[in-house]
Design brief:
Layout lengths: L8 E5 L4 H13 L5 E5 L19 E4 L2 E3 L2 H12 L12 H25 L7 H17 L13 H16 L5 H4 L1 H8 L5 H4 L6
Parallel strand pairs: 1-2
Antiparallel strand pairs: 1-3, 3-4
Helix pairs in contact: 1-2, 1-5, 3-4, 3-5
InterPro entries: Glutathione-S-Trfase_C_sf (IPR036282), Glutathione_S-Trfase_N (IPR004045), GST_Omega/HSP26 (IPR050983), Thioredoxin-like_sf (IPR036249)
GO cellular component, one term: cytoplasm
GO molecular function, one term: transferase activity
Amino acid sequence: MSHANCSTINIYSSTTSPFARKANMVVQLTGLGEHTQIIYTNPFEDASLREINPLGKVPALKHDELLLTDSYLICEYLDDKAANLNLYRKGQADYYQVQQVHMLCNGILEAAVATVMEKRRTTEHSAYWLERWDASISTALNILGINQLGTADHPHIGTVALIAALGYLDFRHPERNWREHYPAIANWYSNFENLHWVASTTPKA
């Protein structure tokens, strides 16, 4: 990001949202931290968040007059602004493969978050939806190929999304014990756990 265009990027975030964590990790990966202000909020309690994001969700990005309200777009915008990583692999042969990994991992996140919300209901839980979300998580993890996931030296947006997904499973679904069931992914993940952009954004109770 050039000094000629260095107005502050405001990102509305949460310490527990895996979608917000994706944006936070991309900020660190792209080196945009000095140009970015991360504003932590609770989307379930902060009514003023809707003044920024009418959907009342995080992450949300405000940069000058631009407003973005989805983690996919926010991460892409940050990647474009940095212009030093090309996390989305635009113009490269593996572009669609990377986007497919990204979408699968976003699907894991959606299913995992929906499961948490369903179990918090005070009325009877839907066994049908809980089973569907469980199957979505398991099936997606089963088909992810290690050679598609990126490396610590050369991550892509799918790498970021999978790290967010695995971290959220640890945080909200420890009973899944995903490391035991997916040892190849666990071995892959071990290469990232202690990296600053991963460790510093790991959700904590």
